[in-house]
């Protein structure tokens, strides 16, 4: 396991050394979203009984930041290594493919949770935000960031230049996160769009995470956990297979 620990340490150090860019900058972006949307819609929207719109918005924004940064961490690490050529220093040592998977995924989880915790700690100083079921919130945060970390590995393996990775993020990750109920409850949508939202796996991550705060959700948290867990298993198996055969890495 020495190789796993070394690669994990390298990945953790990679984003921590530029923490202003990888942690502080996403935190500022989320706070700007919170400032704008809460000021505009606070008096007009009450998604759950007894829950203000600002309180509703914070868990969604925190989870959105967790997911986006988890994806960015693993995908950017791989594409940078491929383009600069230093991927060879990861491929030459006798790493098992599952060690690479674990190291990149756990580093992505660490960055995602760091950003999410930053959002939570900053906002509780300004608003009374309950946390009724911390275990539910933690489970969805860890599982969601692991899923996006694994998906980031797939994107990093597939992409051969930064433009392709940017397209993956702009046309898949960004729309799915923005249309997942971050800014609204799906019960406020027409029936067709409610059913369409249920096809978005990001919706179940954010809805389940929000349940940990309020004890209320649009979908049963058990169903959301099963769906997110199934998606993570499927993406993980695909990622492990790509690493095992060395797709676009060794050949």
Textual characterization of the structure:
The protein has 251 residues and is mainly α. It has one domain. It has ten helices and no strands. It has helices at residues 2-16, 19-41, 53-84, 88-91, 97-123, 134-158, 162-178, 191-197, 201-214, 221-245. The longest helix has 32 residues, at 53-84. The model has no long low-confidence stretch (mean pLDDT 90).
Keywords:
10 helices, 251 residues, 0% strand, mainly alpha
Gap from first CA to last CA = 25 Å
Give the H and E element order. Answer: HHHHHHHHHH
Uncertain ranges:
none
Mean pLDDT: 90
The portion of residues assigned to helices is over 70%
Strand content: under 5%
Shape type: globular
Helix-strand makeup class = mainly alpha
* Helical segment count: 10
The number of domains: 1
Q: What about the largest sheet?
A: none
Care to count the β-strands?
0
Gyration radius, to the nearest Å? 18 Å
Quick recap:
The chain is mainly alpha-helical and 251 residues long. It has helices spanning 2-16, 19-41, 53-84, 88-91, 97-123, 134-158, 162-178, 191-197, 201-214, 221-245. The chain has one domain.
Walk me through the topology.
Layout: H1 2-16, H2 19-41, H3 53-84, H4 88-91, H5 97-123, H6 134-158, H7 162-178, H8 191-197, H9 201-214, H10 221-245
Helix pairs in contact: 1-5, 2-3, 2-5, 3-5, 3-6, 3-7, 3-9, 5-6, 5-10, 6-9, 6-10, 9-10
């Amino acid at each position: 396991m020495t190789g796993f620990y070394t690669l994990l340490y390298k990945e953790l150090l990679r984003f921590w050394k530029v923490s202003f860019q990888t942690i502080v900058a996403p935190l500022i972006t989320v706070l700007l979203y919170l400032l704008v949307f809460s000021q505009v819609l606070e008096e007009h929207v009450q998604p759950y009984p007894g829950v203000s719109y600002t309180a509703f918005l914070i868990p969604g924004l925190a989870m959105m930041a967790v997911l986006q940064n988890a994806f960015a961490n693993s995908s950017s690490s791989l594409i940078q290594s491929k383009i600069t050529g230093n991927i060879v220093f990861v491929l030459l040592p006798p790493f098992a493919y599952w060690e690479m998977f674990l190291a990149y995924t756990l580093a992505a989880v660490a960055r995602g949770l760091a950003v999410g915790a930053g959002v939570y700690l900053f906002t509780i100083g300004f608003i009374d935000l309950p946390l009724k079921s911390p275990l539910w919130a933690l489970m969805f945060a860890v599982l969601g960031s692991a899923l996006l970390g694994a998906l980031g590995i797939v994107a990093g393996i597939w992409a051969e230049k930064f433009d392709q990775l940017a397209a993956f993020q702009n046309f898949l990750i960004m729309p799915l996160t923005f249309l997942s109920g971050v800014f609204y409850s799906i019960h406020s949508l027409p029936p067709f769009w409610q059913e369409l939202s249920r096809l978005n796996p990001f919706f179940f991550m954010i809805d389940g995470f929000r349940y940990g705060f309020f004890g209320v959700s649009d979908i049963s948290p058990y169903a959301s956990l099963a769906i997110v867990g199934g998606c993570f298993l499927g993406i993980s198996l695909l990622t492990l297979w790509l690493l095992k055969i060395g797709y676009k890495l060794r050949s």
